[in-house]
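ESCALATION

Customer reports they have been waiting on this structure for their group meeting. Please prioritize. Original submission:
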Amino acid sequence: MAWTKYQLFLAGLMLTTGSINTLSAKWADVFTAKGCNDDPEHAFSHPFVQAVGMFLGELSCLAVFYILLCHDRRSPQPKMNPGQSFNPLLFFPPAMCDMMATSIMYVALNMTSASSFQMLRGAVIIFTGLLSVAFLGRRLVPSQWVGILTTILGLVIVGLADFFSGHHDDKHKLSDVITGDLLIIMAQVIVSVQMVLEEKFVYKHDVHPLRAVGTEGFFGFFVLSLLLIPMYFIHVGSFSDNPRHVLEDALDAFCQIGHQPLILLALLGNTVSIAFFNFAGISVTKEISATTRMVLDSLRTLVIWVVSLGLGWEQFHGLQVLGFLVLLVGTGLYNGLHRPLLARIPCCASMVNTEDESSPGERERLLADGSVQADDES
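Update from on-call: job pushed to the front of the queue and completed.
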């Protein structure tokens, strides 16, 4: 069945805004500018300020939700389901997980390449699958276990590509690249905890996705904005790249933006793109399918890699291509993208039916859960 123009628009919007989200964050990182008090030019290294901007983008989804709700209620036949009433504090624990994971990933993005950053985020399916088995009582089908093992292999290949490229990268030391990669994988553990918490305590309340993302964005924006105050006084030595060597120097960030306005453009690109990415991702799941959403999410990794090469932010490495392909296969196996192909082969059709019987509706729910996190992206 051919896609409608609206469906094509949504798919293009998701692919474009999802790519802009990571690329704009990396673009901000490559700028250098003077800071406060006539500090010499230094790199814009403010991951927590960037995370606040990301949460502001998520928070805007709450405004979009109420605008759509008001517009729907004015129509002769309202169709939008606002969901049942709920305690907003239910979103506080997953929002804190989102805050920690996002902050760690923005720290890591300063240390490694944008393409590796996006590829290594595929590790989320490993920890989500394992935690779902342990805490949600979910049973994974054989193809999902194979997908997890394949994803682990892909992560190893991407890590090796970064290890070899680290010797020839003037912007990143080898130790920084390895640390950044490990931080990204560590952040995926926290993301997995967030997803399990959301499914166990939040999704059963039938909350509209835009409202869910916006509520988490509210908590993340409010808490992290307050945390910027103590971060201004916490000295962390050489771990921080700002002149005062504190955990986060928000004043220095604003001074650098004043000296180099393009940094503000990059930050706004990150904030606006995350808002549209959330809307597009949710709409793609609703209008097309969660499977399509996962495919588009994988494609934006390719877009980010190609653009990064074109801008000279990183060098071409064959191992990274191999790692991307292996990760793509692992993600496809985990999310059941192989099933339509196997169903056409007579000898394999019974195997597909067996998986369906052993886990009815399970894969689609996993797809929907995984794609919700893709929105928060961070």
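Sent to customer with the following note: The chain has 15 helices and two strands.
Escalation resolved.
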